[in-house]
What does this fold into?
Amino acid sequence: MPRRTDINKVMIIGSGPIVIGQACEFDYSGTQACKALRKLGYEIVLVNSNPATIMTDPGMADRTYIEPLTASVLEKIIAKERPDALLPNLGGQNGLNLSSELYKSGVLDKYDVQVIGVNVDAIERGEDRIAFKETMKRLGIDLPESEAVYSVEDAERVADRLGYPVVIRPAYTMGGTGGGLVYNVDELRVVASRGISASRIGQILIEESVLGWEELELEVVRDAKNQIITVCFIENVDAMGVHTGDSYCVAPMLTIAPELQQRLQKHSYDIVEAIGVIGGTNIQFAHNPKTGRVVVIEINPRTSRSSALASKATGFPIALVSSMLAGGLTMDEIPYWRDGTLEKYTPSGEYVVVKFCRWAFEKFPGVIDQLGTQMRAVGEAMSIGKTYKEAFQKAIRSMETGRYGLGFAKDFNKRSLEELMSMLAVPTSERQFIMYEALRKGARIDDLYAKT
It folds into this structure.
């Protein structure tokens, strides 16, 4: 299947401002998309509200608009430029939301614009919590027990039925925006109200808590021939309850049995086939190590923060390949140095990758250093080492916080074991450093496991 000849001009929606939860990984994705599609011979129209990006550099696209990312502005640009296609899934959550909005308002039909890379109804099946739940039910894949609601009163009713704590997840948001883990009805009222306001469609999911379970992620790529590959298996070392953007993680999975990894891969392939995404998709699972139960938490039918990590960890350019697949190519047409063509790709490499986050709580007066289901990290570093220990130490040194390892951070080495253990009651940005000093003072591994 060669490049598509029925389209000539493609519009790419950029990611907008860099904020907590949506950072330069989407500038990277958009830049890769511009390069790939121009190389295939397409004319590129780029729209982004943020001029301080690489993707808006002169020469990256044929036409660049620095304009507010709103449906009304995009409609005016579409009317002027008359693109043949719209690529929504490389501009983060903004690109997906705006594409869905333009489709539902009839703008895309009015100007005869196709959506490439992901079907518009696939966006809904991935982002709308009710549609996502129905799709998983049809596939026979387990989910945490949950119910989508549109009011605080209904949220209270569902939480009473499920039992506290519960997780609140707003639809069509990113980085856990507006959501959170709540332990009582007072917290529920605050977070539910905030979540309904944050959601584009005023919808929140009230979900059974899987606090403390293992959080596992897969990055997979699918093409128009339904050829699917796994780019990377990612194990979050922090348990469920800490947002994946805040938890530190490793690739490949180091403590997960091969049988479980195969099971997660099978689920992931079933999901991307049902959703119908062309290109990269991130799927997040929770695993209960005591019972073996596996539930799917969410999928991102777009390039994501984890896509950038997986790309750098493996050398597989997910955004670039996703753009080529959206342009009509299939993986058996893309050369791959090791096995001939890309559909034969399997993760490999005799090394360990660690991602460690950077926080800046000191810059936000009055904000408590506590991690939860809403992302707080302002950046992250990725390190590569022959062993887990080497990669982990490198990651800490890469933070540029003046620390060169786990020991002697702040005054933790002067505190008693009892003090250190009490400090681990809630997840914070200092958790790993506190655990290190607790181990030096004789803490048992089982006690640390139970505490964290």
In short: The longest strand covers residues 214-222. The chain is about 35% helix and 20% strand.
